[in-house]
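Exam revision sheet. Question 4 asks you to relate a sequence to its structure. Input first:
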Amino acid sequence: MTAVAHPRFGVWTVVYGSWGPFDHPEDPVDASWARNRELVVEADRLGFDSTLIAQHVVNPFGDELDQLETWTSAAALAALTEKIEIIAAIKPYLVHPVVLAKQALQIEEISGGRFGLNLVNAWFKPELERAGIAFAEHDERYAYGREWISVVRSLLNGERTSFQGKYFQVSDYQLRPIDAHRERPTIYVGGESDPARALVADKADVWFINGQPRDEVSRLISDVAARPREGAPVRFGLSAFPVARETDEAAEAELASLWELAEAGKARWERLVADADPKAVMFQTFTKYPHIGTNGGTAAGLVGSYDTVARRIRDWADLGIETFMLQFQPFEREMRRFAEEVIPRVRALSPARPF
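Answer key, structure tokens:
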């Protein structure tokens, strides 16, 4: 493992309309394009490095709720921003790899070399099943995803591609124009099961890890870093939900308030869990480490004074975390607070030391 001298900070777009409790009085649920456009344009202005657009076709908290569409939004945001990396999540069963690779290369061109795709294994069963798409068993979904990303990666590299597998047969296919800015867009992969970690070691540039205690993340990083791999080492990202205030006490009080709101809306979360694949390691981890937010949220421990949160980020960077993908509530206000109060403190700390 190698410590990271200059950690990167990203924000999740509010594709569901909220990343915390749905009943927050200062954060009404709003998944509109207008809100997400303004949020990401401001994140770009504030100096955030990345934004992640999660993918669902219908809102997993209830299909009566709005849901932002990922790939059309990614293309639009690429045209509207200047520096921020645009990362679009993709579930392989939804789009053929040849079509997806072409879309990714086009957004890469629109953005001027700022695009990344995040391969995720589907966990929300109704989304596929109600559309007549078979929801395969956990390990088969990863086998499908491995073939899928093999085709995508080859095409993104500008290679003339032929592939004969169980799920895909591609013959002498080539996409043009090739990436004019770098070798190809960045490939992020999520998931923490053994098949997911094997896929990360083989195919990913960056592994997104769910927020959880440091010892658990260290174990996961060590496992992937030790696996055979060709090319540059895997880099690591962590999902987190910061709650930062002037003092540790004020931050803990805010967290307690969020827990009260979460308790009032617990039925929505229970409905989501009931529709999830029980073999998804993510939900097993969530049971062990309760949190506010999704993907581990506050379990990453970024709760405290501005100085406390900055020191904890520095500790994570010393462990090898390069990119922190952040959720907030109320999102816009707390995103600005983090940019103004926490990021400068992180940058002022001494640089990381290699292990």
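Marking note for examiners. Residues 138-156 form the longest helix (19 residues).
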